[in-house]
Amino acid sequence: MTTTASLPVQLRACEPSDVPAITAIYAHHVSHGLASFEIEPPSAEEMTQRREAILAGGYPYFVAESGGEILGYAYASAYRTRPGYRHTVENSVYIRHDCIGRKIGTLLLDQLVVECEARGFRQMIAVIGDSGNHASIALHHRAGFAMVGTFRSCGFKLGRWVDTVLMQRALSPGDTTLPDEKKGGQL
Predict the structure, then answer these.
(1) Dist CA 58 CA 97 (whole Å)
(2) Residues 131-170, buried b or exposed e (16+ Cβ, 10 A)?
(3) Which residues contact 178 (CB under 8 A, 6 or more apart)?
(4) Distance of CA 156 to CAs 36, 75, 82, 153, 161, Å?
(5) Dihedrals φ, ψ of 179, to 5°?
(6) CA–CA separation, 23 vs 74, rounded Å?
(7) Phi, psi of 134 (to 5 degrees)
(8) pLDDT digit of tens for each residue in the chain (187 aa)?
(9) How far apart are CA 98 and CA 100, in angstroms?
(10) Positive or negative, the Cα torsion across 157, 110, 20, 100?
């Protein structure tokens, strides 16, 4: 893939035609990194099903595009499936490996926060693979997330034990008011 360092980055809703690029981005992170605890990269068909489930659940899914190339993607999904968690989302942000450090993650995460607030969600959770993932921790900190804790050595990948870092950010009024049951997840 070519780099698009001089072209502007645009955010837009993820379309079905973006799935091959998303699959390739995620496959690199699965195969070479610790952000995901998956061991085998999922197929484009599996990534299509995951995308459809996220959208069917009423959650946002964005891509960052420049010069016709997908540079990264982000989405929110259910933090947990039980109804009591319906006002809380978990975020995922993945950047193409040759585009890391260009603030694309910041653009995507900021837009994801705005959209989740508009949809009435009240809390966003970041579940970050690897306590050594300083870039992701810093990205979330800049976006207003606070450190909640670290699960030590709860995963094993690439020949070593891996931590999981939890960070959290209130959305809109957070827990200072009761939720509008017409937004932020349906029962």
Answers:
(1) 28
(2) bebeebbebbeebebeeeeeeeeeeebeeeebbbbebbbe
(3) none
(4) 11, 25, 27, 7, 4
(5) -75, 155
(6) 13
(7) -60, -35
(8) 344 556 799 999 999 999 999 999 999 999 999 999 999 999 999 999 999 999 999 999 999 999 999 999 999 999 999 999 999 999 999 999 999 999 999 999 999 999 999 999 999 999 999 999 999 999 999 999 999 999 999 999 999 999 999 999 999 999 999 987 775 554 3
(9) 6
(10) negative
The first and second tokens of residue 10, run together, are: 């645009």
Compute the distance between CA of residue 144 and CA of residue 140 in angstroms, rounded to an integer.
Answer: 7
Q: Which two tokens stand for residue 68?
A: 């016709």
Does the pTM exceed 0.90? yes
